[in-house]
Amino acid sequence: MQSEILTLERRQLDLDAGTLRLDPGATKNADPRVVYLTPALMAALAEQLARVDALQRKLERIVPWLFPHLRGRRAGNPRHEFRKVWSTACTKAGVPGRLLHDFRRTAVRNMERAGVARSVAMQLTGHRTENVYRRYAIVNDGDPRAAVEKLTGTFSGHTGGVVIESRSPSS
């Protein structure tokens, strides 16, 4: 499972600025990106930094990785895959069988629904072309109805739930 996350180093995270910098060449399209973090994600990453700090003290050496192995013979070394952990997490979250890529589609869809400018959404997701981006911006049966309700002032808002689309990018 290829990941932009597993290769992250602590130097790329700036909790004070609330950003994560993805280096050139480290992303799917090889372009550098700055990711602006939500408060919940900042809190989770601060907890992860605390775990890595404790590991450094235990190993008595610097661990540059943001997500190293925390135990066992590989402790302090970078992770190279997380297939088993991903599968377990999806099962515990009640969405077994989801692909990591499903969440990229969900991000696109959520940004479209929230009215984020397409150029900004494309920058955040790393899409270079509108054509590829549109493959992720799936319209479901309720989207046109919601658009009409917004235009007529009868929009009731969404429930706050997250819908995870799992259609393949080629569909």
Q: Which percent band covers the strand fraction?
A: 5-15%
N-to-C series of helices and strands = EEEHHHHHH
- Determine the fraction of residues in helical runs and give it as a percent range: 40-55%
Between the first and last Cα atoms, what is the distance in angstroms?
Answer: 21 Å
Radius of gyration: 19 Å
- Main sheet summary: 3 strands, antiparallel
What's the total count of β strands? 3
Please give the order of strands in the largest beta sheet: 1-2-3
Query: Which spans have pLDDT < 50 for at least 5 consecutive residues?
Result: 158-171
What does the model show?
With 171 residues, this protein is mostly helical. It folds into 2 domains: 72 residues, no CATH class; 78 residues, no CATH class. Helix content is 42%, strand content 6%. The chain is built from 6 helices and 3 strands. Strands 1-2-3 form a 3-stranded antiparallel β-sheet, with no helix packed on it. The longest helix has 21 residues. The protein is elongated. The relative contact order is 0.11. The C terminus is likely disordered.
Features of this protein?
3 strands; 171 residues; mainly alpha; single chain; 2 domains; elongated; disordered C terminus; 42% helix; 3-stranded antiparallel sheet
Secondary structure layout:
Layout: E1 13-14, E2 19-22, E3 33-36, H1 39-59, H2 83-92, H3 100-114, H4 118-125, H5 130-136, H6 142-152
Antiparallel strand pairs: 1-2, 2-3
Helix pairs in contact: 3-4
